[in-house]
Every structure is written in structure tokens, then in C-alpha cells.
Amino acid sequence: MPTTQTLAANKYPVTVIIGLEVHVQLKTQTKLFCGCTTQFGMPANSQVCPVCLGMPGALPVMNREAIKLSVRTGLALNCDIPPLTKWDRKQYFYPDLPKGYQISQFDLPICADGFVEITDPANPDAIRRIGIIRAHLEEDAGKSMHDESSGVSDSKIDLNRCGTPLLEIVSQPDLRSADEAKAYLSELKLLLTHLGVSDCEMQQGSLRVDANVNLHIDVDGKKVATPIVEVKNLNSFRNVGRALDYEVERQLIAWEDTGETIDDAPKRTFGWDDVNERTFAQREKEESADYRYFPDPDLLPVRLPREWVEELGQTLGELPAATRTRLQDQFGLKTYDSDVIVNQGPAVIEYFETAATRSGDARKTSSWMLQDVMRTMKERDLNAKSFPIPAERLGDLVHQIVDGKLDNARARDVFEYLLEHDDSVDAALAALGIESVNEDDIVDLCRELLAENPQVIADVQAGKQQAVGALIGKARGKNPNANPKVVRQTLLDLIAQS
Ligand SMILES: [Zn+2]
């Protein structure tokens, strides 16, 4: 948010209208219409051929895998998959587009009319359904690099990305806040990585976002809309959030200043300045008529047989939304816990399921997962596969707590030990000298403590139950294996009997 401006002056109700266009690089070995590799980080212009360079007479050949990945995505996004799809040329001139046109899909996209469900960031128990207008396949352009370090402006072109398959997923303008936009992107990313469609590495440009945003302002019962701004090429979820927050405030102030509405200027194209944390105007956006779309004469339309699409549908596996519901129904997890676990991906889900089944207490297991396990993973840059404590062993540890053999503090000691030693929980208990203390010993210990601290008896009898708290630490000092909960209850029982 810009710090010098506030929303305070506004007296009209404002509805924020956001739609996102997400460009996802598909995880194919080769480009969309030629055999060049799509590997990231190779020397500039080393992954090119006459087809992706746009040499006259070179003919494109469609990549089947890209079609398959797109259909899988469309099915997971609840889209209709049409029986026929086709390729169109989108004409524009830019130095990083040597062909002078981009092969894309205009009026017959490969996926249409779907939706994604997200957890409402303002209410974790509510689900918001975000419509998907379409998803179409297209090829990426190259990359221009402007180097001004030598003092002389120097531009270079790297065409390695030219022809890389992108799926552009266009949402309905159903998002109502920057937080919702981020929740939608997280869910989309989760779905795409789950399907193995894309690795969604934003730093490598394999997921890029254009955000369309404007405001509907209710002026005494009459709806006024501000011009739509498309903020291009946002390369992190954080920047999507910041750009949207900034635009909401900027548009409101601009409207208050100038009264300009969507009728005066339908749409503008902006960029995001990460350093100064503001959006800025770019070239005016072309209308689709300016691109002179026409069917690509070098490529046949693509038939998508019903049976083939249905077969693909059966290979999707359990999608993240279904896993969340299952963790809630089968394991009794709360919405928040199931969200966190599912959002970590398949390996963490599997780890949790194994540990929870072993421990016999899914909620307690999930609380250990969300706190100790994930914190350690983050601190040590580990994942569920490289984590030193196997899922079964964590299950055994939690089981000891559930059984009352270990309190949380002692369990944490065992956890720390297991992080460093490839031992069973029993071996860890032995190594740490932890043994369960029998009831008689606890009673003796508590009697001793009460004899030494008669004031506590008087306080508890006067109604101050919390006074026993002072003795629990002392019990630990006498016997580190004494379970604080059991000590507390024993003390209260003895005082009641005295
Ligand atoms: Zn090529």
C-alpha cells in the first residue's frame, strides 16, 4: 500500500473485481512445435532450430504430450474439453518473436468453462468457487535482455524460450481481494504440481501472472466502474498481492480526483515496479482485432476423442480438494490442519497418513506435524523424504504421548534425539534415561513435596488450585521422568484427602 495515501476519504462502498491470467510452462521434454529441448539455464540461443527461429519454409509439428498435459489440467479444473481444437496465428512484431506471429488458440481453446474451489481467506470454513473462462495452449516468445552496465545501452536476445509450450489459464473476474487472488494462485499451483503438468517455478518463469483489476463503486445506488488495469508479468505471489493492493488504492484515488470511468478508458496496461512498490503505465494494450488472428495454415486442427479424454480423466488420482475433505472425514482433522498438510504436497500427505495411522491419534499427530516436523523441515531445508525421522517412528512417539507415557516436554527431548540418531523410540527412551514412573513412586514424591511445602495445602484448601503449579517444577527436579499432568492430579487428590 502506498503510505502517503489512505482510503479514509472514500465514503462509497467499493467492490474489488479481479481476474487472473496465469501462464504456465508445461513440463514437456521438447518445445510445442519442434524437437528443441525446454531445459532451463542453457547458454543463450543454444536451444533453437529453423522451426522455433521462424525460418521461411520450416514446418511445425505438434507436441502430443503438451495436448495431453493440457487436457489433464482442463479436467482437473472442471472444464469442458471440446471434441475439436485448433491453432491460430496471433500477429505482432517484437524483437523476441522472430516469426512475427505467435501460434496460439483464438476461438476454439482446448479447455473452457471450468472452476476452482478455494478456501475463503476471510472465513476458513467457507468455500469460494472461482470460474475459469478458458485455458488455451500457445508458444512462448524469446527474452530480451537490456544491459546498461557498460554505460552504453546494449540489448541482447535469447531465443531459447521461443516455442516453449505455455498453457494460459484465464479466470472469471470472480476474485474480490488480493488475498483471494493469492489463495487462487496457491490452489492452482498445488493442482498443477500435483498433476505433474508444470513445476511452477516462478523464479524460472514457468508460472507468470497478469492481473486484471478494477473497482465497482456504489454511488448512491448507481454502479460506477473504474477503467480496467491489466498489471503484466507478475513473477511472485507476493508481488501479485502487493500490485493488487496498490492498484485498488490508486484507482480509488484516481477516480476521486478525475471521475474517470470505464466508459472513458476501457482498459490500460501497467507494469509492476518492484523497487518502488508501485504500478506504472506501459504501452496501450492492443484489441484482439489488432492481432489479426487467423487459423494457422501449417497445422491441422486437433481431434480429442471422447474415450481418450475419459481415459485421461481416470488417471488424475485424488485431487487436493478431495484429499482435504478425506483428511477431515477419515482422520477428523480441522480445516486449517488439513489445508496446511495438503498444501505441502503428496509426500507430506503420505507422511501424515502413515504417522497418524500408527499413533492412533490423528489430531495429535497433525499438531506435531504442523509444529515440530514442519518447523524442522524449514530450518534444515528438508522435505518429507529426507526428514531423518520416518513417519512410523513419529507415529510411535505420538503414541507414547497418547498413552500417557510421555509428556510433551519429554517427547520433545525424544524428538530432538531422533533427529540426530537413527534409533527406535524405545532405544531413544533408554538412551535418554526416560522410564515411566510407577504410581506408588509418584504418590511418594508428592507426599514429600507437600510435607516440605505446607503453605500449598492451605492455599489449595482456600480455593487457589493453581497453587500446586509451584510444586510441579520441583517434582521435575526430584525426578525428571515424573509426568507433570499426573503429578498435578496426584497432588490435588492428596490435598483433598488430607
Ligand atoms: Zn526448435
TrEMBL record:
Its EC number is 6.3.5.-. It comes from the Bacteria. This is Aspartyl/glutamyl-tRNA(Asn/Gln) amidotransferase subunit B. It catalyses: L-glutamyl-tRNA(Gln) + L-glutamine + ATP + H2O = L-glutaminyl-tRNA(Gln) + L-glutamate + ADP + phosphate + H(+); L-aspartyl-tRNA(Asn) + L-glutamine + ATP + H2O = L-asparaginyl-tRNA(Asn) + L-glutamate + ADP + phosphate + 2 H(+). It comes from Aporhodopirellula rubra. One of its GO terms (molecular function) is transferase activity. SMART domains: GatB_Yqey. The gene is gatB. Keywords: ATP-binding, Ligase, Nucleotide-binding, Protein biosynthesis, Transferase. Heterotrimer of A, B and C subunits. Allows the formation of correctly charged Asn-tRNA(Asn) or Gln-tRNA(Gln) through the transamidation of misacylated Asp-tRNA(Asn) or Glu-tRNA(Gln) in organisms which lack either or both of asparaginyl-tRNA or glutaminyl-tRNA synthetases. The reaction takes place in the presence of glutamine and ATP through an activated phospho-Asp-tRNA(Asn) or phospho-Glu-tRNA(Gln). Belongs to the GatB/GatE family. GatB subfamily. Residues 350-495 form the Asn/Gln amidotransferase domain. GO terms for biological process: glutaminyl-tRNAGln biosynthesis via transamidation; translation. The keyword Coiled coil does not apply. Pfam families: GatB_N (PF02934), GatB_Yqey (PF02637). Gene3D superfamilies: 1.10.10.410.
